[in-house]
Write a structure and sequence with these properties.
Strand order of the largest sheet of chain B: 2-3
Strand content of chain B: 5-15%
Distance between the termini of chain B: 23 Å
Radius of gyration of chain A: 31 Å
Number of strands of chain A: 18
Number of helices of chain B: 3
Largest sheet of chain B: 2 strands, antiparallel
Oligomer: heterodimer
Largest sheet of chain A: 10 strands, mixed
Structural class of chain A: alpha+beta
Number of helices of chain A: 15
Shape of chain B: flat
Shape of chain A: elongated
Number of strands of chain B: 3
Order of helices and strands of chain B: HHEHEE
Number of domains of chain A: 2
Helix content of chain B: 25-40%
Radius of gyration of chain B: 22 Å
Strand content of chain A: 15-25%
C-alpha cells in the first residue's frame, strides 16, 4: 500500500523586544542565571502584569506579513499546569481569541496554510544534573509567538521549505532574529501517515527537540518511514510524544509529564483584552517590509540577476541590503563576488569597494584571478582595492609606452616566432605574448600586449 | 475532564495539582469541593439569553506599556526564597520529562 505523510508544525518564535511581555526585565540572551527577574516574572502573588505594546505590534506585523486576518478583539487566558518552568503554575497564553487567524506561507509552487498566531509568555529554562534540576527564570516571561500551521505539508522537504520561508519573513520584518541556537525559534512537529487517497488523518505523533531546520527535516525523514513500516507490520500507531535524537538519528518515546492534558483554560483576570483599531492597524501596516519573494523578483528585474543569484542574496537579509548599496554599474559581477562571502556582517568591507574591484577588473588593471586575492584581502583588512593592488604590486601595466618597449624587445629576441607568424602560423603570437609577460614580471595587460604585437607584426 | 457537581474525580484533580492525598483527605476535600461547586453553580440559574460572553468585569481594553527595560531585582534576594541554589540556579529534585 502507498502511504502519504500529513505534517503540521507549531513554531515558537521569541519576539525581538527590549523587555519581557509583562514586566520591564531585560530580554537579552546569555545573562547570568536569575539576574533578569522580578516579582512579576517570578510569579509572586499580588503583582500587576502590564502588556508590552511592542510585543502586540510585532505579533500583528507577523500576521500581516503572512496574510492573516487580524482579530479586532483579542484576550489572554491562563493555561494551568504544574511544572517548575512556570512559577505561577499557569502560562499566560491565548486560547480562543488569538491576535491573528488564517494566512499562508508561500513556498515554491504552493501556499501552506497557517491556522493562527497567538502571543504568550516563554517559560524558564531548566538544566538537568545527576540527581537535581536547576531553573533559570531569565527566559520566563519573554514574549513568545506561536505560529500554528494547517496540516498541509506532505513531505520533509515541504516542512523544510515552510520553516526556511517563515524564518526569512520574520527576520525581514525585524520581528525576531530567529537564531535557533539561542532558542529564538523552536519547532514541534505533528506527523501522521495515511493510505494515499484516504480522507481521514492517521493517528498523529508529536516530535520535539529539533534544534535546527535541517534537524526537523531529518527527524521527519526518520519518523515517516518508521510509521509506514509499523503499519505495514500490522501494528497500530498511538498518539504519543517522541523526542528526536539528532546524533543517533532517531526518535524515541518521551515519558509524558501528564497523561490527560487538562489545562483548564480560563480568562486571565489581570490582563485587559486588546482591541485592534483601524488606526492601530494602519500604523503597523506602514512597517510592512518588502517580503523575500517580492525582493527576489525585484532583484531579477531591477538588476538583471539570474534567479539563482537573486535567491542566494535575498536568503540573507544582510547580504541583500549590502548588495543594493554595492550593485553599481555591473550588478552581476558584484553579485558574483558577494555570493562567496560567508558572513557579510563580520567583515570590515564597504559596499562601494566591491564596485571599485569590479571596475579595476573590467578596466584591465588587474586580472580576474588577481581579483580573488585582492577580494580576500579586502574582506579581512577592509582596505580599498586600489590600496591592496598597490601594496601587493599587482597592477597590470597598461601603459602602452612601456608595453611597446617590451613588445619590441620580444620581437627582436625571437626571430623564429616572428618568422612563423609571418608564414601564417597565427598561434606563434602567443609565444611572443608569453615573452612580454615574462619581461614585465607578469604585470602586463595580456589583452593590450596581444593588440600591440599584432599591430607591430603586421607593419613590420 | 468534565467534572459535574455530583461526582468529583478527586484522584484526577489531585494528580493535576501534583498533590498526594491520603484517603481521609480525599474524602474531606471531595466534600469541600462539592460544596464550592454547588455554591458557584447558583450562577447557572441566571438566564443569560442574549448576553454577550465576557472575559472581564471592567470595560477596559489596551492597557499597554512601552517596551522599555528596567533593572531587575538583586539576584541574592531572588535566591533567598529558594530552598536550595547553586551557581545562580534554583535547585530542586530532578524533574522527570
Amino acid at each position: 500500500m502507498n502511504y502519504e505523510a500529513v505534517i503540521g508544525l507549531e513554531v515558537h518564535v521569541q519576539l525581538k523586544t527590549q523587555s519581557k511581555l509583562f514586566c520591564g526585565c531585560a530580554t537579552e540572551f546569555g545573562a547570568e542565571p536569575n539576574t533578569r527577574v522580578c516579582p512579576v516574572c517570578l510569579g509572586y502573588p499580588g503583582v500587576l502584569p502590564v502588556m508590552n505594546a511592542e510585543a502586540v505590534r510585532k505579533t500583528i506585523l507577523s500576521g500581516l506579513m503572512i496574510g492573516c486576518k487580524i482579530t479586532q478583539f483579542s484576550k489572554w487566558d491562563r493555561k494551568n499546569y504544574f511544572y517548575p518552568d512556570m512559577p505561577k503554575n499557569y502560562q499566560v497564553s491565548q486560547y480562543d481569541l488569538p491576535l491573528c487567524l488564517g494566512g499562508a506561507v508561500q513556498i515554491s509552487g504552493k501556499k501552506l496554510g497557517v491556522t493562527r498566531i497567538h502571543l504568550e509568555e516563554d517559560v524558564a529554562k531548566s538544566f538537568h544534573f545527576d540527581t537535581t534540576s536547576g531553573v533559570d527564570f531569565n527566559r520566563a516571561g519573554t514574549p513568545l509567538m506561536e505560529i500554528v500551521s494547517e496540516p498541509e505539508m506532505r513531505s520533509p522537504e515541504d516542512a523544510f521549505a515552510y520553516l526556511t520561508a517563515l524564518k526569512e519573513i520574520l527576520i525581514t520584518g525585524g520581528v525576531s532574529d530567529c537564531d535557533m541556537e539561542k532558542g529564538q525559534l523552536r519547532c514541534d512537529c505533528n506527523v501522521s501517515v495515511r493510505p494515499v487517497g484516504q480522507e481521514k488523518f492517521g493517528e498523529k505523533v508529536e516530535i520535539k527537540n529539533m534544534n535546527s531546520i535541517s534537524g526537523v527535516k531529518r527527524a521527519l525523514e526518520y519518523e515517516i518511514p518508521r510509521q509506514i513500516a509499523a503499519l505495514g507490520r500490522g501494528e497500530k500507531i498511538f498518539q504519543e510524544t517522541r523526542r528526536w535524537d539528532d546524533e543517533a538519528g532517531k526518535t524515541s518515546v518521551m515519558r509524558t509529564k501528564e497523561y490527560a492534558h487538562d489545562y483548564r483554560y480560563f480568562p486571565e483576570p489581570d490582563l485587559m483584552p486588546v482591541t485592534v483599531s483601524d488606526a492601530m492597524l494602519a500604523e503597523i501596516q506602514k512597517l510592512l517590509p518588502e517580503l523575500p519573494e517580492a525582493r527576489r523578483q525585484r532583484f531579477i528585474y531591477q538588476y538583471g540577476l539570474p534567479e539563482y543569484d537573486a535567491g542566494v542574496l535575498v536568503a540573507n537579509a544582510a547580504l541583500a541590503k549590502f548588495f543594493e548599496k554595492a550593485a553599481g554599474k555591473n550588478p552581476k559581477a558584484v553579485a558574483n563576488w558577494m555570493m562567496s562571502v560567508s558572513d557579510i556582517t563580520t567583515t570590515p568591507i564597504q559596499p562601494t569597494q566591491i564596485g571599485e574591484l569590479v571596475t579595476a577588473i573590467d578596466a584591465g588593471q588587474i586580472s580576474g584571478k588577481q581579483g580573488k586575492d585582492v577580494f580576500a584581502a579586502m574582506l579581512t583588512t577592509g582596505k580599498s582595492p586600489a590600496i591592496i593592488i598597490q601594496e601587493k604590486g599587482l597592477a597590470q601595466v597598461s601603459d602602452t609606452g612601456a608595453l611597446e618597449a617590451f613588445c619590441e624587445q620580444a620581437i627582436a629576441g625571437n626571430p623564429k616566432s616572428v618568422a612563423d607568424f609571418k608564414a601564417g602560423n597565427k598561434a606563434a603570437v602567443n609565444a611572443l605574448v608569453g615573452q612580454v609577460m615574462k619581461l614585465s614580471k607578469g604585470k602586463a595587460n595580456p589583452q593590450l600586449v596581444g593588440e600591440i604585437l599584432a599591430k607591430k607584426l603586421h607593419s613590420a | 475532564m468534565p467534572e459535574d457537581t455530583n461526582r468529583i474525580n478527586i484522584d484526577h484533580v489531585a494528580h493535576l495539582a501534583r498533590l498526594e492525598l491520603t484517603d481521609a483527605e480525599k474524602t474531606k476535600f471531595a466534600a469541600q469541593l462539592k460544596d464550592m461547586l454547588a455554591y458557584v453553580a447558583k450562577l447557572s440559574e441566571v438566564d443569560v439569553t442574549g448576553v454577550e460572553p465576557t472575559a472581564h468585569a471592567v470595560p477596559l481594553t489596551n492597557v499597554l506599556r512601552p517596551d522599555e527595560s528596567r533593572p531587575s531585582i538583586d539576584p541574592a534576594l531572588v535566591l533567598k526564597n529558594a530552598p536550595e541554589s547553586a551557581r545562580g540556579l534554583i535547585i530542586m529534585p530532578k524533574i522527570v520529562e
